[in-house]
Design goal:
With 337 residues, the protein is α/β, with parallel strands linked by helices. The protein is built from 13 helices and 13 strands. It has two domains: 163 residues, 3-Layer(aba) Sandwich (Rossmann fold); 153 residues, Rossmann fold, CATH 3.40.50. Strands 1, 2, 3, 4, 5, 6 and 11 form a seven-stranded parallel beta sheet that branches. It has a six-stranded parallel beta sheet with strand order 9-8-7-10-12-13, with helices on both faces. The longest helix is centred in the N-terminal third of the chain and has 15 residues. The chain starts with a strand and ends with a helix.
Length: 337
């Protein structure tokens, strides 16, 4: 069995900085190869119907390209715009078609399985973290808040999808330092909301930090804030990296899987974030202890072991997979985990 992951063509793989899908593809490759599964990364125009090969697409247009050319494929959904634009949108319909034409499809946000109730081929696969690289700090000093994100939505740079305002206002109310890091596009957000820059304990690092800089940020802060109102990955990559670094989290989460050390916001507001920070500080040692104990189970290696089980059950790649057969494929893989 050979796996071909389809590159997005937008950012190099591996990325050294921003690029969530590209990072995920690279981690799959690195960890599946540890499990003796050969993995190639190809661009869409290089795809063929190879023998004993599973093509794994990460964008809807890649999946539909395969569908048109009768190349069997597995599909992963990463696009939060499918929910934002709604079921009447072209984005939703394109992704739904990609799922229906797949052997099996994965979402990294559990709640989207119910949202895409027009298909029985969509299943949950969690994100992971590189737990060998993202490691906890040996010491925890004074409390410092951290947010790492690329804000905005659907071309609107001023849309506060990631909740920067809630984080800054909560930090100011509690007189705590806060760092916001991420892509350079966040500068546009702060040009629009320049009043947020008045808080003197706010530090911005909007330089598209590389992996080493990201790790240092996690290791030098004590609480990670993520009051996001829309995600196609719950938990997303920054939450998983914070978990690997054993930084207690205050944020939104829509899933049944327990998130170690996390205060899940009952609603998104400044008051809710303030309460979450206060409760996290009160129970800080216990939350961090819980995260330290569970961090290895959140690794990309563990995720890749699960993914390999699904690949192993795609035995006859040239046969059409109905919804019923796909459900049985998933059950067979799940029972063998």
């Amino acid at each position: 069995m050979r796996i071909v992951h389809v590159a997005t063509g937008l950012i190099t793989i591996p990325p050294n900085g921003w690029g969530a899908v590209e990072r995920l593809i690279w981690e799959y490759k690195q960890n599946l190869e540890k499990l003796d599964v050969p993995v190639d990364i190809r661009y869409m125009n290089e795809l063929e119907r190879w023998p004993d090969t599973i093509v794994h697409a990460h964008l809807a247009n890649q999946a539909l390209y395969c569908l048109e050319r009768k190349i069997p494929y597995v599909f992963s959904l990463h696009d939060h715009h499918t929910e934002w634009y709604g079921k009447d949108s072209w984005v939703f319909k394109q992704n739904l078609k990609a799922m229906k034409g797949s052997i099996i499809s994965f979402t990294h946000a559990e709640y989207l399985i119910d949202y895409f109730n027009e298909t029985d081929k969509l299943f949950y696969l969690p994100h992971g973290a590189n737990t060998e690289f993202f490691t906890p700090s040996d010491t925890v000093g004074e409390h410092k808040l951290l947010m790492i994100a690329n804000n905005g939505l659907a071309g609107d740079s001023g849309f506060d999808r990631k909740g920067f305002r809630y984080g800054i206002e909560a930090a100011e109310e509690l007189d705590l330092p806060i760092t916001i890091a991420g892509h350079t596009d966040n500068n546009k957000f702060f040009e629009i909301h320049s009043e947020l820059l008045q808080y003197k304990k706010l530090t911005l690092k909007l330089t598209n930090p590389n992996d080493e800089e990201m790790r240092e940020l996690y290791q030098t802060h004590s609480i990670f804030l993520h009051p996001s109102m829309l995600e196609a990955g719950h938990p997303n990559l920054t939450l998983m990296e914070a978990t690997a670094c054993a930084i207690p989290i205050v944020g939104t989460y829509r899933g049944s899987r327990h998130m170690d050390g996390m205060w899940v916001l009952p609603n998104i507001s400044t008051e809710s974030v303030i309460k979450g920070i206060q409760e996290t500080i009160k129970t800080y040692d216990q939350r961090r202890k819980e995260m330290l104990a569970a961090r290895d189970s959140r690794s990309w290696y563990e995720v890749s072991k699960t993914l390999k089980k699904y690949y192993d059950n795609v035995i006859k790649i040239n046969e059409g997979y109905t919804s019923e057969r796909t459900k049985q494929l998933y059950i067979n893989a799940y029972e063998n985990l």
